[in-house]
Amino acid sequence: MAGFRAVGAAFVVLNLLGLLALRAGNWLFWVVLAVNAAQAAGVRMVPFEMFEAAEEAYGWVGVLPSAITDGGALILALIMLARIVMVLRQRYARGAALPSNQPTQ
């Protein structure tokens, strides 16, 4: 149980880093995407018995914290991936597949 709490606390800190995404550079986009993808994978990584124990102890409300945070992370990761696809399509349509600061070969 302590391990799950430690992982949860780490994700809280990493999600706070995501709040800087509006002001930071491009590198933070990739960090936030990785954090959200890892958090969304939590539904598959956490043993099902953990969810059963939470439901037995607290009812369906016991599953809400994980469902909300992991589900929200999945939605955000999918939105970010869709944005990547959209930007790449726009660049290919303009004939500029590489960012302007990248050398061409």
Helix content: over 70%
* Order of secondary-structure elements: HHHHH
Count of DSSP strands: 0
Low-confidence stretches: none
In whole angstroms, how far apart are the ends?
A: 52 Å
How many domain modules?
1
CA-based shape? elongated
Task: Output the number of helix runs.
Answer: 5
User: Describe the biggest sheet?
Assistant: none
Nearest-integer average pLDDT:
80
By secondary-structure content and strand pairing, the structural class works out as mainly alpha
Strand content: under 5%
Q: Evaluate the radius of gyration.
A: 18 Å
Transmembrane segments: 64-85
Keywords: Membrane, Transmembrane, Transmembrane helix
In short:
The chain crosses the membrane at residues 64-85. The protein is mainly alpha-helical. It has one domain (2-94).
